[in-house]
Amino acid sequence: MSLDEAVRALRDGDLIHLPTETVYGLAARADDPEAVIRVFEAKGRPRFNPLIVHVGTVELAERIGVFDDRARALTQAFWPGPLTLVLPVRDASLACDLARAGLDSVALRMPDHRLALDVLRGFGGGVVAPSANRSGRPSPTTHADAIEETGAAVRVSPDGGPSRVGVESTVVSLLGPARYLRAGAITRAQVEAMTGPLAADAAEGHRSPGRLSLHYAPDAPVEINVDEPLPGRVYLAFGPTGHDGPVLQLSASRDLHEAAANLFRLLRQADRLKPVAIAVAPIPDEGIGEAINDRLRRAAGFVG
Ligand code: TXA
Ligand code: MG
């Protein structure tokens, strides 16, 4: 695949895979409802769940959304990178209603991935890119997993290597007081250092729209915070374990970043063993551990 083919496919309103540092995305041009509708259809994603618009330059982001001082400080600190900002929409023609689920706000992000940035800059406009899994399933973090999930829906699927971060971007709303809507690699503390204190979390359901209860879920049931797995389980360990059964290590050295990078790939690998259940070790709720625990609670169906 060449960069030109990916750019041409976007121009034509076709879908491509967009490898990013967080997870692989299923991408389409954001200004064309017919292109965006294909993304919802390929994923089986409910239409009320708005998409993130990916940009290759800050200049384009400032044309799509209304930036204030906090948005500028955050983008200077963390773009390109795993941080999505929800801002008032400035030019709705650049991010169609369907992409925004009809809201008067827009979610913007500049991914930190060479190939993604080349594609985005080559195309020049905003690009929606939800994770390239079918709705409700674990996000793909390798090219093979992206192909397995939605390969049939894309015209071009660039191989960008394994995603370095492994969990989706942090989502911060700046519509009022800064709010941490989705945990990711950019932590609450890192955001607060730029914005001042974050507003208290809204009740679940009033947060990012479309955060469904069973999400990121493999076929096997997921059990979380398990120190001593029962028989028949595949165990996702975090450091040394005495489990007498199949063990997949999130991180032998108990490194949270390594665990995040391995999380979705190992959930898929565990699922292929067709176990009674997948048991996961307790993960410290610090730093990127908050994002890991958020995804694990959803994989286990504990967030409603
Ligand atoms: O890491 C990522 O962000 C990946 C990669 C591919 O870039 N993309 C991703 O996109 O996760 P998506 O579209 O699945 O994530 C959208 C998240 C959802 O939680 C959605 O509810 C929230 O962003 N969101 C989008 N627009 C919003 C808005 N206007 N207001 C509040 N939340 C919004
Ligand atoms: Mg997703």
Q: Explain this structure to me?
A:
- The protein is of the alpha/beta class.
- It contains ten helices and twelve strands.
- The radius of gyration is 19 Å and the shape is globular.
- The mean pLDDT is 94.
- The protein starts with a helix and ends in a 5-residue tail after the last helix.
- 31% of the residues lie in helices and 15% in strands.
- The structure holds threonylcarbamoyladenylate and magnesium ion.
Q: What is shown here, in short?
A:
The chain is α/β, with parallel strands linked by helices and 304 residues long. 31% of the residues lie in helices and 15% in strands.
Task: Provide the descriptors you would attach to this structure in a database record.
binds threonylcarbamoyladenylate; alpha/beta; 304 residues; binds magnesium ion
Low-confidence parts: none
Largest sheet: 8 strands, mixed
Structural class: alpha/beta
List the total number of helices.
10
Shape verdict: globular
Q: What share of residues are in beta strands?
A: 15-25%
Q: Give me the count of strands.
A: 12
* Rg calculated over all Cα atoms: 19 Å
What's the multimeric state?
Answer: single chain
Which ions and ligands are bound to the chains? threonylcarbamoyladenylate, magnesium ion
Order of secondary-structure elements = HEEHEHHEHEHEHEEHEEEHEH
Draw up the topology in text.
Layout: H1 3-11, E1 16-18, E2 25-29, H2 33-43, E3 52-54, H3 58-64, H4 69-78, E4 83-88, H5 97-100, E5 105-109, H6 114-123, E6 127-128, H7 143-150, E7 170-173, E8 179-182, H8 188-195, E9 222-223, E10 233-237, E11 247-249, H9 256-272, E12 277-280, H10 289-299
Parallel strand pairs: 3-5, 4-7, 9-12, 10-11, 10-12
Antiparallel strand pairs: 1-2, 2-6, 3-6, 4-5, 7-8
Helix pairs in contact: 1-6
Magnesium ion is lined by residues 130-131, 139.
